[in-house]
Amino acid sequence: MHRYRSHTCGGLTASDVNSEVRLSGWVHRVRDHGGVLFIDLRDHYGLTQVVVDPDSPAFKAAETVRAEWVIKIDGKVRERPEGTQNADLPTGSIEVYARDIEVLSAARDLPLPVFGEPDYPEETRLKYRFIDLRRETLHANIVRRTKIIAAMRRRMTDVGFAEYSTPILTASSPEGARDFVVPSRIHPGKFFALPQAPQQYKQLLMVAGFDRYFQIAPCFRDEDPRADRLPGEFYQLDLEMSFVTQEDVWNTMEPVVRGIFEEFGEGMPVTQVFPRIAYDDAIRTYGSDKPDLRNPIEMQAVTPHFAGSGFKVFARMIDADPKVEVWAIPAKGGGSRAFCDRMNDWAIKEGQPGLGYIFWRTENGVMEGAGPIAKNIGPERTEAIRQQLGLGEGDAVFFAAGDPAKFYRFAGDARNRAGKELGLTREDQYSLCWIVDFPFYEWNDEDKQVDFCHNPFSMPQGGIEALNGQDPLTIKAYQYDMVCNGYEIASGSIRNHLPDTMVKAFEIAGLSKEIVEERFGGLYRAFQYGAPPHGGMAAGVDRIVMLLCGATNLREITLFPMNQRAEDLLMGAPNEPTPKQLRELHIRLNLPN
Prior knowledge:
Layout: E1 20-33, E2 36-43, E3 46-52, H1 59-62, E4 70-79, E5 94-105, H2 122-127, H3 129-132, H4 136-158, E6 162-163, E7 181-183, E8 191-193, H5 199-207, E9 212-221, E10 232-242, H6 246-264, E11 276-278, H7 279-286, E12 300-301, H8 303-306, H9 312-320, E13 325-331, H10 337-349, E14 356-363, E15 366-370, H11 372-389, E16 396-402, H12 404-421, E17 432-436, E18 441-444, E19 449-452, H13 463-469, E20 479-484, E21 487-494, H14 499-508, H15 513-519, H16 521-526, E22 534-540, H17 541-549, H18 579-585
Parallel strand pairs: 3-5, 6-9, 11-17
Antiparallel strand pairs: 1-2, 1-4, 2-3, 4-5, 7-8, 9-10, 10-22, 12-13, 13-16, 14-15, 14-16, 17-20, 18-19, 20-21, 21-22
Helix pairs in contact: 4-6, 4-17, 13-14
């Protein structure tokens, strides 16, 4: 028999009854039932109940073991007594009667529990991550993650992609975040950058003729953390294709991603044909470029109903500025003053002056609009709003007014809140879509200049003619995002593969031809020697896994995440370099006071 085990703790079934077995694992918990000890023994594969009674030679050793000790047991498999079976456990029909126990490793008092999985402070969980990872839910999430990634690889190979690895030490690239830089010892005063994405390399692979590339790629960005974005590093399903339009990319990747959600979504419905929603329409309809389509609420502009009306707050705004619009957020079933007041209170906490509303009720057999706005604009305008939005008795509508560029995010948040509070958002499904036709440029108010809105390597719609003759802020790009349940899970574009168009695009954003040649010399040079039209995308592995695990924080699906201050509490990183390291790198620190 093997030194440590003949079976795993998840492998014994009724067919093994009367077999002599050896198991090794962690003591999940110990229970004393009238002098008979029950040890739940756990390993990566599952859990087996071990029974030790006072007559067993193993009893003395069993009395000493504690939670999370690592032990080896020898014993005989037997059926559990009638009424004690556990149908929720694969090994729930059997137990092992122990005749020998060997302690392989004792454990000190635990800094956090493994059994029961109560909430525990993040600092403790991350410092003792090796214990945290033993907890059932987190352990299962990590195993699920590996299976999802394996399925991604399988599906990408099935549709003709090959996996290629790209460098980790590279040059700085404008991907929209700060780089992590690595000093070069051999070249004093010069630095490598960790890749924010393999963007340039995968485009170079297309120029090199590899046609269909993919990679489960590590990416490094010095960004502030949040629940759906870890500090430091993340992984993406990165891909690129030659001789394709954006429709080719969509038609290729939609079945791959849909298949992943169907395979791991535990039967939840998945969108079969992803809607394609223009960016401008998404902003106006949902208040977001990553709309949660599980929520049926769609916003509409109702500006004419307030122009010249008795509601002077909105009417004066409309008269004073042609940019001003009034957007309506219809809320079916929200027609009570209590709910409307809750929404108004929420808006004030969000830093807004409030959230105007109308709700409809029946008084003396007549349906009428209620609330201050209804009183001010009168029954005729109130009825016109109701008709436009298709609302009725028991429904409500909320209003946001001003320059849409400044309030659309708040309106989108109000839409999401109303959908969830009213139970309109369907939680039991995966709703996916494409957001397309992104603006190529945006105005950078801080630097007072035109800047790239999304990916600087994208092809502008209209090509160089648009760059030469069109207002930059009106140019659209062949850029697209894939969205699921309110999360952006992928982003991509058709690339700008023409050197003159590339230079002109960067010049509009304030970067000269010389800077383009210096910073993107490899890509720019490659485009001089026959570059195929190409495009691709990158899907966020971490976010997809988070959605499929039903988690709300990426920490719950990541092996060794940093904390909210971008610190690795387990390994003690970042740490201070030694004087010798600094001398070798020709670096002198200039620390803040």
